[in-house]
Amino acid sequence: MSDFHQNGNITTLHNLRTQTLENLEYELSTFAQTRRITLILPSLFSELEGDALPHILNELAQVPYLHRIIIGLDQADAAQYNHACAFFGHLPQTHTVIWNDSPRMLELGARLDALGLAPQEPGKGKNVWSCMGYLIACADSAVMAIHDCDILTYDREMLARLVYPVANPGFPYQMAKGYYPRVGDGKLNGRVTRLLVSPLLIALKRVIGDRDYIDYLRSFRYPLSGEFAMRTPMLPDLRIPSDWGLEIGVLSEAWRNLAPKSVCQVEISDAYDHKHQDLSPEDASKGLSRMSTDICKAIFRKLAADGTVFTPNVFRTLKATYYRSALDLLEGYYSDAKMNGLSLDRHREEESIELFAENIIRAGQVFLDNPRESPFIPTWNRVHAADPEFLSDLRAAVTADHEEYA
């Protein structure tokens, strides 16, 4: 059974196993009569051919309270888009497949590029941003949720628990972040959270001193989860990072825009597993190596924006402090895994720590060398100010793609 601990910074909503899915969905259906709920699914075409997404759709088909599902489709040609429309066509809810690589969408991207407002690189951040733009253009939902399309252990209770805090009109929460244990195949997973983010935040507190932002991030049990829900008035002013720092970036935006009492984390699953990224120590542009660098940059940028001064000496000290903190935490993870009958390869774990330590220096150097770097996709408020017709044209392009290609 779950604990009921509160950390005092943000509210934690636990699963005490005293509420049924049937009751949750009944309440959500009641809320949805006046507070429509939309789900965004950022997807690669390759995920349509995997094991996770077909099961996710079977679960979603049973959800009674969703007003709309928006699927952002990346890395697909015309035939694959057509196949995707048929694939998602089994959903009984109103749904839309946004073909992000269509000629019309590329034309819209060129229009933004001419204004200096185009996303600088493809990926999940751009996908989510486009889906949010479409949702803003629809202007008919009060709540938005996002989760990944590679969750092998998915069931629809994850979604119900994720959206409930922001859908309930009696709750004060504007954003809810999902959390869960990362255990699968007899192993303790979640390497980047365990071996990078947690010890890095401990090290930052030791090196630069107390910061409310650091305490805020440390309050989240799984800050890198891809599952979150929010009330839609937040969306037009939300800054979406264009790199692997998406999850940390969204938490930072909640910190910037909301009071802590408006943010919560919610336990959504007992067992969560999805595809695992390679460590990729030989190529810093891929896998967990790239992810760790982007996450570090996202944290450094936010602290700098709040007045922290970083220098090469600070980053060297931070690396050494991180390394010691990570090894200390590893001892605890090993004991936890052993007591629960799980395997944990200490050699590989220490290899990960060594790589992450090097990437702290790499991220710091990139941060210092590129003071003018703009890592965020422009907000939709800024896009609307520069091109008031863009959102309606985006919605029209999505409709036209469906009519022509599907």
Automatic annotation (TrEMBL):
InterPro entries: Nucleotide-diphossugar_trans. Keywords: Transferase. GO terms for molecular function: transferase activity. The keyword Transferase applies. It comes from the Bacteria. This is Glycosyl transferase. It comes from Lacimonas salitolerans.
